[in-house]
Amino acid sequence: MILFFTLSSGLILLLLFGFNYRYSRIMMEKKMEENAQNLAQAKVNSIESLLLAVQKVPENLACFLENGVYNREELRRLLSALVEKNGEIYGAAVAFEPYGFDKKTLHYAPYYYRTGGVIKFTDLGQGAYGYTHGDWYQIPKEINRPDWSEPYYDEGGGNILMATYAVPFYRKVDGQRRFMGIVTADVNLEKLQEVVSSIKVLQTGYGFLISRNGTILTHPAKELIMNETLFGVAEARKDVHLREIGRRMIKGESGLVPFRSLMTEEPCWMYYAPIPTNGWALAVLFPQKEFVADITRVSRMIILLGLVGLLLLSLAVAFIARSITRPLKAMAEATKTIATGNLDIALPPVTSGDEVGRLTESFQTMKESLKTYIAQLTETTASKERIESELKIAHDIQMSILPKLFPPFTDRPEFNIHALIEPAREVGGDFYDFFFVDEDHFCFVIGDVSGKGVPASLFMAVTKTLFKATTTKGMAPGEILTAVNRELGEGNASCMFVTIFCGILDIRTGEVTFANGGHNLPFLVYRHREATMLEANPGLVVGVMEDFVYETDKLRLEPGDAIFLYTDGLTEAMDKAGAFFSEERLAEQLAASKGKPAPQLLADIMAGIASFSQGAPQSDDITMMMIEFRASKK
Amino acid sequence: MNKLLTIVRPATLDNLASLVKSLQNGKRYMRRVFLILCLTLFWGVSPLWAEAVLKKASFLPHWSPQAQFAGYYVAYEKGLYQKQGLALTIIQGGPGQPPIEYLEKKKADFVLTWLTAAIQRSTGGVKLINIGQLIQRSALMLVAKKSSGIASPQDMNGKKVGLWPGDFQIQPKAFFRKHNLRVQVIPQSFSVNLFLRGGVDVASAMWYNEYHTILNAGLDPGELNTFFFPEEGLNFPEDGIYTLAETYRKDPALCRAFVQASLEGWRYAFSHPEEALDIVLKYIARAKIPANRVHQRWMLARMQDLMEPVDKGKPFGILQSADYERVAQTLRESGTLKTTPSYRDFFFR
To answer: Cys staple from A622: which of A107, A569, B8, B240, with CB 3.0 to 4.6 Å?
Structure first.
């Protein structure tokens, strides 16, 4: 986590740094180009003004020589004065064509030059100098215009490194313009070297000057001066690009190019510009290393600061992360213990008011709540278990008061009876009973107490007991129900009631007398016909109105016929969608199982309900009872 | 006198050691080595004895020090002349030292000069002979800027052509004669600036020197048209070693030893060009002349091209009779000479 954080912070820092570096570099380069241009132009201007000042002198003198009249003395005085008065001139000469000055002198070239603070004179025509083959003489003569010479060591003349501006002069002879000679003015190259060597760029940047031939005229490396041309350097370095730069320079172009120093070969930027007056070119070099030195220094500082910052950040992150994770870790340990059920473990102490602190508090509360809850739950479970066991006992008792031995009367073949009860809860409100009133009369009853559970079950027990106690020989079912109703109605504080259907079968004749106290009407299952629901007075539920009188009805069963009694738990059994099992389905089920023995038939119906309800919880007790009349004893 | 370099230095042990070392190299000289070793025993007694072994001789190249003479400087510096039994003095050449005059006045035993110059002088009294012809091809050439529109000899008609004086004009003039050209000859100085500034349309140049100067003034070869005389049937061998017939008669072994050592010097220079350039530059510096290694390297490479015999396989340093006859005939045709010496009387080897 800390590593990820540090890395992503580092990446952001790096991106910022890269952008900053690039942008500053571009800005610096732009600025440098401007600076270079300005610097070079300024230097070109000062060289130009020097050269132009030098040019004036021979131009004026040539004009005078073409038009004026002069003798040897006058010419020398004039020349001497010109050199003396024009400080930028090193020397000046007037060189005549052979026998051009007079018919007696082959070569005449008076030359004044300054040396050691004084003006000296020499005649270049004397001795082995042979000026007519000199470049400064020959070139302007042949091209018929003034020209700046390539710089040269003037041996025999001024004995210094100089460049000469030479102006041809003419005279009209016989109507023809005839070349008479050359007027020159020399500039000491030291003067130009001073201008160029004053160029200081950054720490080691410098300027240099080249001639029209590419000859290096000024350079910090003295051994290059007059010895090398840019093209020679290009050849030595096998650098075609440098040669191309040189060609552009001597063609009078200007520009900014990458370059390698002539001395150190270090990469530089070079700006070059022409000196229009004489076609030379000036170059200014910016060492790249120094030019980016400031950026590099700043960048290095930024990187250092960034690294320190990153380190501090990482430490802070580590510290904060630890202060969060330590209690969290402790809490994780604690919850692990809690998970095993040990709620008594102490949680780490709350040391801060932040989220972790609040979380710890919440954990503490949760733990306490859990503890209380579990305690309550334990208690509740214990009481529930007690109730459940009591209910179980109640169920057992309830079940034990219902006759459960089938067939109950094996010695009486005239009829058969079978019953089934399926309580919805442990203790239900349904009941059934049957017993002989006398030798030939068999009483049967089915009932359903309102409500469920223990109260219903108690009410059911009361009702059943009451019913059996009330029934005496010779009583019609209506009379029994009326009596039971009166008994139950008295002091029925809980306002419970019960539906009861009871009947008495004369096992000799198959005659059944019955009374209904609001109970579902039983089905008559005939041997030779479709089963039908008994049509009878529904009657009022028992236990509500104590003065109600129940009537007794009659029906007759043929041998093989049967009565099927049930509680509403059967017809109102629900499937998942909430639909009832209904009397119709019961009728179909009875029809389908026709002819089967009673136990089998009841089991089939029970299975039918189970498949109908599809696992939906049983909401009410289901009770069925079937009495089949076989034949009277003859 | 500081311009004279002498091999006869003070007899130091240092000198002796180098002498002995240089002599140990060849088995042929074992006898001489033995002799030298014997002599060294008496070295301390009489330094003059050692000098007596080496024959004194002097040599003048026909121009100031440059790679054109690399072979001789290298032979000297590597002790090749000493090995041949010569105590040689190389006289510094230059514009003020005309070689044939030095030979005639016996200021030098051996000189370098052009074949044309030598043939002309050998008919005028003092008899000089060629004992080794180094440059087999003409390095002299004419150059024009393509921008001036001169692409063929005919284009030169009526143009300004810069020519050097003297023997440098023989070939160009024969060339103009051959093509029936009338040109305006402008005397050319030692610089090429007159040509570069457009003062002349065509300039003379030595292939190993001025042509390279022009290239290194920023003109590309593609911007120039060149005219080489060998292509015009005017191949004049140039630098050759000359001596007086009298000197040769007196001591032919001395002459052969000099030529032998000089040729060895050249071979060494061509196989060790950078070392040769170091030596040449040392001589140039001593003469206080601006030195440019790139230029000297070009010159040395061209010297190798020029010295290669035209017919491959022929030995180095021989004046071919056909070349000789061609030059002699051209000189006669130009009206410079009526008669020329025979090849047998001129070249000795």
So the answer is: A569
Residue B43 confidence class, pLDDT cut points 50, 70, 90: very low
The predicted structure's pLDDT at residue B310: 77
A207 beta partners: A284
Q: B293, A229: Cβ pair inside 8 Å?
A: no
* Residues in Cβ contact with A438 at an 8 Å cutoff, skipping those fewer than 6 apart: A473
Interfacial B residues in 158-187 facing A (CB < 8 Å)? 160, 186-187
DSSP B96: T
Residue A499 near residue A518, CB atoms below 8 Å = yes
Ranges of CATH 3.60.40.10 domains, chain A: 402-629
Task: With CA atoms as reference, report the closest residue to A479 among A513, A430, A505.
Answer: A513
Phi, psi values for residue B21, rounded to 5°: -60, -45
Judged by DSSP in three states, A176 sits in strand
How far, in Å, are A96, A105, A178, A180 from residue A101 at the CA level?
6, 7, 13, 8
- The CATH homologous superfamily of the domain defined by A402-629: PPM-type phosphatase domain (3.60.40.10)
Give Cβ neighbours of residue A1 (< 8 Å, ≥ 6 apart): A321
Instruction: Look at residues A192, A242, A241, A246 and name the one whose alpha carbon lies nearest to residue A217.
Output: A192
| B191 contacts in chain A (CB < 8 Å) | 135, 150
How many residues does this entry show for chain B? 349
Residue type, B227: F
What are residue B183's phi and psi, to 5 degrees?
-120, 160
- The SS3 of residue B56 is strand
Which residue is closest to B194 within chain A, CA to CA?
Answer: A139
CATH number of A199-291: 3.30.450.20
User: Can you say how many angstroms the Cα of residue B348 is from the centroid of all Cα atoms in its chain?
Assistant: 17
Of the candidate ranges A215-224, A283-292, B106-115, B251-260, the one whose mean pLDDT is the lowest: A283-292
- C-alpha distance from residue B89 to each of B2, B48, B73, B262 (Å): 12, 17, 11, 13
Whether A517 and chain B come into contact, CB under 8 Å, resolves to no
User: What one-character-per-residue DSSP string does B128-165 give?
Assistant: EEEEEE---S--EEEEEEGGGT--SGGGGTT-EEEE-S
Is the bond preceding residue A407 a cis peptide, omega within 30 degrees? yes
Contacts of B312 (CB under 8 A, 6+ apart): none
Q: Which of A500, A384, A503 is nearest to A434 (CA)?
A: A503
Q: Which domain holds residue B117?
A: 54-136+237-346
Chain A environment of B186 (Cβ under 8 Å): 138, 142
What is the DSSP secondary-structure string of A7-66?
A: HHHHHHHHHHHHHHHHHHHHHHHHHHHHHHHHHHHHHHHHHHHHHHHHHHHHHHHHHHHH
Q: What is the pLDDT of residues B193-226, one digit of tens each?
A: 999 999 999 999 999 999 999 999 999 999 999 9
Q: Is the pTM of this model over 0.80?
A: no
- CATH assignment at residue B213: 3.40.190.10
pLDDT band at A213 (very low <50, low <70, confident <90, very high): very high
Strand partners, A533: A523
B281 and B332 assigned to the same domain: yes
Of B130, B131, B107, which Cα lies nearest the Cα of B340?
A: B130
The ipTM, to two decimals, is 0.78
pLDDT at A327: 76
Q: Beta strand pairing status for A441-449 and A430-436?
A: antiparallel
* The two structure tokens encoding residue A464: 């059943």
On the 0-12 / 13-18 / 19+ scale of CB atoms within 10 A, B235 is buried
| B218:A142 CB<8 A | no
* Boundary of a domain, candidates B180, B214, B232: B232
The radius of gyration of chain B from alpha carbons, rounded to an integer in Å, stands at 22
* Number of structural domains found in chain B: 2
Query: Could you give the C-alpha distances from B152 to A485, A534, B204, B226, in angstroms and in order?
Result: 155, 147, 15, 9
